[in-house]
Amino acid sequence: MKTIDAVVFDMDGVIFDSERKVMECWGEVAEKYGIKDIHKVCRMCLGTNAAETRRIVLEYYGQVFPYDNYVKEMSALYHERYDGGRLPTKQGIRELLEYLKANGVKIALASSTRSLVVNDQLRDAGLLPYFDAVIGGDMVSRSKPDPEIFLKACAELDVSPERALGIEDSYNGIRALHSAGMRPVMVPDLAPPTEEMERLAEVILPTLNDVIRYLDKERKE
Question: Which of the residues are catalytic?
């Protein structure tokens, strides 16, 4: 493709409809224990790694909040329901991956989720073979909005950041892509676009199918 050498994907909320499912599981735990504002706090944690999520939650509820117990229960519920290929994918992901492969574009994943879970979920969905590099949140020291994970993905692919397009749904993800000097494309999931996102993103598109049309139009110009 004449304008890009690579596309780097976020995972949760971009490839999988996982953020909604995590929030549903948190909602059940919150109802069981009488935890208030859980959906508000979950939204505050979008696009962050496990350590940053823990910090945000404890800052909101207080340091004595038994977060580790609750997150363990939520995680068990989530994996019981969605492991083994049962996690729903987002509309258009397979078509977009096929399109990129057909046009010789390198593909990477840069997710705040730890790499073991990332690889398992991609493998269970039959998507892992599409990816030339997979970077999990435990493979970098700083969480989004720091650009470290995206710069590492570009380095693994041996492409310049300015020649790579990144697809994100979260505010922190778009901020990280912009800081990395990449081409940020926002495909919103739970977090609606804001004025800041309109300023930082190259384009905001409703679905991954629209990303195909966007790239195809650019390729033909």
Answer: 10
Helix (H) or strand (E) holding 122: helix 115-124
Question: For residue range 154-210, what is the model confidence (pLDDT) as tens digits?
Answer: 999 999 999 999 999 999 999 999 999 999 999 999 999 999 999 999 999 999 999
Lookup: tokens for 166: 């990144």
**Residue 6 identity:** A
**Residue 114 near residue 50 (C-beta atoms within 8 A):** yes
Q: C-alpha distances in angstroms, 158 versus 47, 138, 161, 162?
A: 24, 21, 9, 12
The rounded distance, in Å, linking the Cα atoms of 122 and 100 is 17
What's the CA gap between 178 and 182, in Å, rounded? 6
User: Given strand 6-9, what is the order of strands in its sheet?
Assistant: 133-135, 106-110, 6-9, 164-168, 183-186, 203-204
Task: Give whole-number Cα distances, 212 to 7, 35, 216, in Å.
Answer: 12, 41, 6
Under a CB-based contact definition with an 8 Å cutoff, are residues 87 and 21 in contact? yes
Strand partners, 16: 12, 89
CA distances to 123, 125, 126, 152, 173 from 84, rounded to whole Å, are 9, 8, 11, 28, 27
Name the CATH architecture for the domain at 6-17+89-220: 3-Layer(aba) Sandwich (3.40)
Q: Confirm if 144 and 112 have CB atoms less than 8 A apart.
A: yes
Cβ atoms < 10 Å from Cβ of 84? 11
- Give the separation between CA 21 and CA 45, rounded to whole angstroms: 14
